[in-house]
Every structure is written in C-alpha cells, then in structure tokens.
Amino acid sequence: MIRISQGAVRTSFGGVAVGIEQRLGDVILPLLTPFDASGEIDVPTLGGVIEYVLAHRLCDSLLTAGTTGEFYALSFKERTRLFEQTLNVVRNRVPLVAGTGAVTTRDTLRLTEQAERLGYDAVAVIAPYYSRPTQEELYEHFTAVARATRLPIIVYNIPLFTGVNVMPETLGRIAEQPNIVGVKDQAGANPVQASDYLRVAPHLAVYSGDDAMTLQVLAQGGVGVVSGGAHALGDLIREMIRRFKAGDVRGATDLHHRMMPFHRALGAGGRVNPIPAIREAFSLASGIDVGPPRRPLLPLRDEERSRLRSVLSQLERMQVGR
Asked: CB 3.0-4.6 Å disulfide test: which of 101, 252, 261, 262 passes with 125?
C-alpha cells in the first residue's frame, strides 16, 4: 500500500506543487457496493466489480464506502468488512481511500481508526448529516478527526444530502491541520465555491463531487473528480481531464458535451439520488449484475432504464444483449 506521511502531504518539486492529487490521480472512483438477493453485501461480485474497473482503467484510485457505495445504509460492521474485502482484492494495485464519515464524531473516529489499522492511503470524511451542525461544530468535528489519525484526509462536502455546507472560511480553518489535504465538493450546488476554497486554502486539492461540473472545477484550479459515473465512463472522464491539463480546452469541452446526456440520464425520472442509475449503468456497461440498491431506493423504472440504455449505446458502452 502506498502510504502518505504527513511530511509528504505536499512538497515542492521543480517549482511545481506536488500534492495528494499526484498520488490519488485525476479520477477517484467511489466504488458501488454489490448486494445479493437477500440484500447482503455480495463479496464475490465486489471482486468482479473491482477487477472490471481496474482492467478497463476507469479510475486512478478507489474510494470504498462512499456515497455511491451506500455507506449510509451499511452498519459499522459492514463498512469495516467492506474496507477489508476491498483491500484484499486490490492488493496494492491502486491507492485506496476509505469513506469514514458518520453521523457522529465518535463513529467517524472509530471508522478512521479501522482504515488506518488496515493500511488505507487516505480517508474521505463527510460532514455529519441529519444533525445540521453549525460551522463551529464542523470545525471541531474535522479537527478532532485530523488530530486522531496520521492519514491524509479529504473533506467530503455534499450539502444536498447532509443539509450543511462547509463554508470556505471554515474549510480554511480546518485546513490548518497538516493532514487535511483536499476537499470533494458538490460543485453543482455551489458552482464557484472551488474558487473560494482555493482562495482560503490554496494548498488543498479540490475535487469535483459532481460529474457534470468537472470541467468547471478544473477551470477554477481543481485537480479532478470523485466520479460515480466513472463506473461506465471513467476512461472518457480521464481523457477529458488529461486534455484540459494539456491545454487542449476545446478537446476537453467536446468530451464534456459528449458525456452530458449520460450525466443527465443519472437523474432521470426526477431522482435526486443517482445511485440506482449508476448501478444500472455499470451493469449495462460491464454485464455484471450488482443487484438493486438498498431500500428505500428502488431500481430504475423501465422508461428510465430505456433512456440510460440508449445513451450508453450511443457512447458504445453497453454490453450486447443487455
């Protein structure tokens, strides 16, 4: 496992800042969690999913127990098991990030301790959800986690689901902890917040948490994306980012527009949560059945599935016969 010490979180090499993005790469894939017919974690299929995304080079690193992995629907024991099983399958082939955020600081600390014990490369910590903490409470929460671990931490800001936004000034205070190295932001809700984040904490790696906003975040100084859609289009997303960073803005923009129908299809039918569509997109593209999401989420309706199938077919990303 590639371990990242605090002293190596961000250094200077040839005048160019070298940070967490150099280790985790442009595309972090938040791995979906397969479930079997009884609703339990399907470990053999998990291995198949990992092998597929790695073989097709759909990402640079993996995030386990993120939103796309339905962490909120998993027990503490299930999340720990997911950490272990993912680690066993990956076997040092790509860097691994553990999603350790929880509704309480206590459980976040316990999960982060498990990730460090197992040898993960970094953790992603979501703002506590449901409790609607104040900005001072957010500061105390993230600071407590940072002081309790040696692992690099990516702050995971998704106010659409947590009900609270990590404000730029708060992030600037949190980032005084040396192992706070990046932020994943739901850019669709706050399109220019990446600029405000980099204004107060220019050393942080800013990742888009919204596939459709990746190019916009890159233009503000961001480094990449944590992409659920990468389960189907990760190579195209990586190429878009490569082109942008190489100065081929027109080429990157062309790929952005090419992928937009897919991004829109993930929210078809008025869905706010894209997880059912991401699971279906992966199954259509890979031929691997990952089972339905955990309730209350339901699989796609026929018309939603038909639209997604059509989009993937146009992108030549659908298994024949599915």
From this structure: 101
